[in-house]
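Figure S4 source data
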Amino acid sequence: MTNHDVNSQCCPEFFPEPWQEKEITWQGKLFIRDTVAQFLHMPLPGAFGKAVGRMWQKIEAAGARPNDKDFIMLAYDPSPWKSELYINVTREVPNAENVRLSGTYLTRVFDGPYNAVPKWIKEMERYVTAKGKTVKKYYFYYTTCPKCAKKYGHNYVVVFAEV
């Protein structure tokens, strides 16, 4: 993941099939965590990019970058005023909040604008209920930045429902 410029791509192309309607179990999957200030679930201008940049610098400095195919960045909104970002890493990262996620997650892939998240949550709730499970928490994997989503013609988002 790098900054955008006219001669390079930032985000690898995302293929939804491996993530569509899967059950994933993690035991201590390693991530680093940071927070983003937001207003009514919308990140303040520049806040998301700054947080990702800050995290990515620490990941690169620690040599903890995952392969492109293994990369996951999750967002969780504990309130309308703050979002938590999680980027998976290959080893502990100094000067970062290292966290381990454990649990079972059902996933579904959606394609569309970010303002569709409330609709996706309702669809995900029906999907999880049909599986006989209950959602504890939602995480969102925004698979590409807005510029790359435009380039690829898709704005894929993987919803992880912790069950």
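Figure S5 source data
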Amino acid sequence: MAIVRVTKIFGFEMAHALWGYDGLCKNIHGHSYILKVTVSGKPITEPTDIKEGMVIDFGDLKRITKKHIVDVFDHCVVLNNKAPVEKFAGVEEMFDRKMYTDFQPTAENLVVYFADILKKELPPEVKLESLVLFETANSYAEWLAADQE
């Protein structure tokens, strides 16, 4: 049976700032992110399996990605924990959805972080092939499994 790739696309809103950066992105600002998740595998061939012909049910891919990425990062402020994050800690009115990372929250670092999450959560017979994270309509970062090997 041939290997087949399937892709699901997600959108979420997220704010971030780049601590210590020398440009405008040092300021808290937001983006409408688009995340394309591509996985591969052999379609199920067992005729009695209700998912015959599928690599993964799109609903399962959606559930996994929403639970571990979209629902976590949507309308969240993401900051590098090297920043004085304690100033935000007690401010719940506008900062109840915040995350502090050990890395600069660039599109490049986020796409690698998302890949690490999804690789752990996907079924073993399904391989994460690529992630494309659009930060703007014409700027994106891409993670490819082929580049990791």
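The domain at 4-148 is CATH 3.30.479.10 (Tetrahydropterin Synthase; Chain A). The chain has one domain: 4-148.
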